[in-house]
Amino acid sequence: MLSKGNSDIAVCVNNLLKTSRGEVPYERLKGVNFSLLDGPASTAGQEMIEDIEWMLSIYEPRAKVDGVQLIPDDAQNGRFTIKANISTQGATDL
Question: Could you tell me which of 3, 6, 8, 81 has the fewest CB atoms within 10 Å of its CB?
Fold first, then answer.
C-alpha cells in the first residue's frame, strides 16, 4: 500500500488488478482469478473479463468500469496485461 493516496480510486483499482484471487486472508474472493487462463482460449478471455468486472464492482464500487481488456504480452506462457477503463465522475471518497 501507499503511504498516501490510498483513497484514489484509480490506485485502488490498480491494486486490485495486481492481486491474485486467494492472496488476501479473510477476503479470498478479492483479486483476479488467474486460474481462468487454463481454460479454452475461446472462452477463457471473456470469462476472465466478466470476473474482473464483477470483482471491481464488489471491491471498488466507487469506480464505474467502462471496459476491461486483456492484452497478450506472451500468451504462450500465460502472460497478459489487464487494462481497465474506469470513470470516477461523481464518485466521492469514503
Answer: 3
Write out the chain's pLDDT in tens, 94 residues: 556 656 788 888 999 999 999 999 999 999 998 888 777 767 888 898 999 999 999 999 899 999 998 887 876 776 778 889 988 765 544 4
- For 1-94, strand residue ranges (E) read 64-74, 79-87
Cell numbers representing residue 7 in the block: 483513497
Residue matched to cell numbers 471498488: 60
- Please say whether the beta carbons of 86 and 43 come within 8 A: no
The amino acid at residue 17 is: L
CA–CA gap between residue 86 and residue 94 (Å, rounded): 18
SS (H, E, C) 2-43: CCCCCCCHHHHHHHHHCCECCCCCCCCCCCECHHHHHCCHHH
